[in-house]
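Hi team,

As requested, here is the filled-out complex form for the uracil run. I kept the field names the same as last time so the parser does not choke. Let me know if anything looks off before we queue the next batch.

— J.
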Amino acid sequence: MIQPKADCSLCGLCKGRTNLVLPSGDLSSPVVLVGATPGANEDLQGAPFVGRAGKILNQAMEDVGLDRSKVMITNTVKCRPPENRDPEKEEMAACRQFLDSELAGRKVIIGLGKSALTDLLGYSGPMAPVVNTRQTVDILGEKITFIPTYHPMACVYQKVAREELRKTLRMVKEEFNL
Ligand code: URA
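And here is what came back:
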């Protein structure tokens, strides 16, 4: 896995960074969850999904009996954007070499929300028609299954999103005996 240098300045997000937020969980899991961008807590702790979104993700995992330590969790970019805005195309492109190296050799990539979908599938349409479908992405010349689902923060006010996210997690838990 290629990691950015501690003083990485491949894009402007480095200006607001406290810590790089690198993948966590089982780094050799067949299943990887790709979120959007680190938030304030992630920036401070240097780990993905440790703040509010992380609590919601943890709850969804607990609901289906999937142990968080059995999957790998990462983001499209490794540094927190100002005001928690979405990552820009150029920022995702600058970080893509690291993401590709994290995703290579996996069996399934779960995209949590729109940024992962835009980055990996080049899709920026509505979520509903593609959630829990099986797509294919090319990662360093290898075809890997990609399942788009809702971002944990979308689950705060949307019961449907909560149910779909649980469905995704249940599906991979069963498929890979996690
Ligand atoms: N939201 C994300 O997409 N990723 C994180 O790491 C935290 C919040």
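Two things worth flagging: The CA atoms of residues 155 and 162 lie 5 Å apart. The first helix runs from residue 40 to 45.

Thanks,
J.
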